[in-house]
């Protein structure tokens, strides 16, 4: 069952994996040409306070994922649903929805539960997302995701996007598992041992010819 769930994860998270692959490539390229900013010292760093406002409703997060997976929404209209998206992200999202539709995974349905403020960046929200696909053998799986506030709404965080990309890449790059070897065939019956030779026959004795009796 787990193999089926991971297969579903690999396809569904391509909505993010394809999109953020461009972002990750740009990020790695920029790191080789731009000076590395010094990390803030431990004494000066601080964690943002937990918001006093209410957590978003599950529907607000579901709407983000539903739009990302909706082939009727153009990629250019949903690129802003991923943190740090670029114009190239739109084309990647369009490729994802086309592949998901052709693969028979659409429509996708989402459910969100266990919403909480992020312990790393409290303005962000974490949630457990259940994805249900149209595939009977890859029907449902659960995955934790993180969302960031954006322009009065929400978007998928860059950290979650990169984590999903790593998962997708690891599944693609890992070699296919070879089938387990079958049981060794049972040995056939042992060959019948050659019978031991019997005792040698006694040597033949020659019978002497009768001696003729001389005439009297």
UniProtKB/TrEMBL annotation:
Protein name in UniProt: Lipoprotein LppK
Regions of compositional bias (Pro residues) in chain numbering: 178-216
PROSITE patterns (alphabetical): PROKAR_LIPOPROTEIN
Record domain Low molecular weight antigen MTB12-like C-terminal: where: 55-169
The encoding gene: lppK
InterPro entries noted in UniProt: Mtb12-like_C
Record region (Disordered): 167-216
Pfam families: Mtb12_C (PF26580)
Family that this chain belongs to: Belongs to the MTB12 family.
UniProt keyword annotations, A-Z: Lipoprotein, Signal
Bias type Low complexity, positions: 168-177
Domain of life: Bacteria
């Amino acid at each position: 069952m787990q193999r089926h769930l991971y297969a579903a994860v690999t396809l569904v998270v391509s909505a993010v994996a394809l999109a953020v692959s461009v972002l990750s490539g740009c990020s790695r390229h920029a790191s080789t040409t731009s000076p590395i900013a010094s990390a803030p010292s431990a004494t000066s760093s601080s964690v943002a306070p937990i918001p006093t406002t209410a957590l978003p409703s599950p529907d607000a997060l579901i709407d983000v994922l539903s739009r990302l997976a909706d082939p009727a929404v153009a990629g250019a209209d949903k690129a802003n649903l991923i943190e740090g998206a670029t114009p190239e992200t739109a084309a990647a999202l369009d490729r994802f929805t086309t592949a998901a539709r052709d693969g028979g995974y659409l429509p996708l349905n989402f459910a969100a539960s266990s919403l909480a403020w992020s312990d790393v960046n409290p303005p962000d929200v974490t949630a457990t997302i259940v994805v249900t696909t149209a595939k009977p053998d890859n029907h449902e799986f659960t995955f934790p995701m993180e969302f960031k506030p954006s322009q009065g709404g929400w978007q998928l965080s860059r950290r979650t996007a990169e984590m999903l990309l790593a998962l997708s890449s690891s599944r693609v790059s890992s070699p296919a598992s070879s089938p387990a070897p079958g049981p060794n065939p049972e040995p056939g019956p042992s060959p019948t041992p050659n019978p031991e030779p019997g005792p040698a026959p006694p040597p033949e004795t020659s019978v002497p010819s009768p001696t003729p009796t001389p005439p009297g």
